[in-house]
UniProtKB/TrEMBL annotation:
Domain of life: Bacteria
Protein's name in the database: Ferredoxin
Species annotation: Hydrogenothermus marinus
Pfam short name (any one): Fer4_15
SUPFAM superfamilies: 4Fe-4S ferredoxins
Length: 79
């Protein structure tokens, strides 16, 4: 599976859930607003779950569901 990971920063309410739960992928951009880490490729990065581990991909999908403002956008680009 491959996931495309994005954050809509205009909607983010800086609740910190995503970067607390999945710090490998998300971080605080400086004002509490989330961003996809540059280390993983920044906004729109593709995560190859075989490389990064299915557990990490599962946690990305989970936190995408849990984000209270719907700011996390995660697309399955390859099953
Ligand atoms: S979980 Fe959603 S609202 Fe909370 S910091 Fe992350 S993107 Fe923003």
């Amino acid at each position: 599976m491959k996931l495309k990971v994005m954050v809509d920063q205009d909607l983010c309410t800086a609740c910190a859930l995503c970067y607390d739960d999945v710090p490998e992928v998300y971080e605080d951009a400086g004002d509490g607003i989330a961003k996809v880490k540059d280390e993983v490729g920044g906004d729109g990065a593709i995560l190859d779950c075989e490389e990064v581990g299915q557990d990490l991909c599962d946690r990305v999908l989970e936190v995408t569901e849990e984000c209270p403002s719907g700011s996390l956008i995660t697309e399955v680009v390859e099953e």
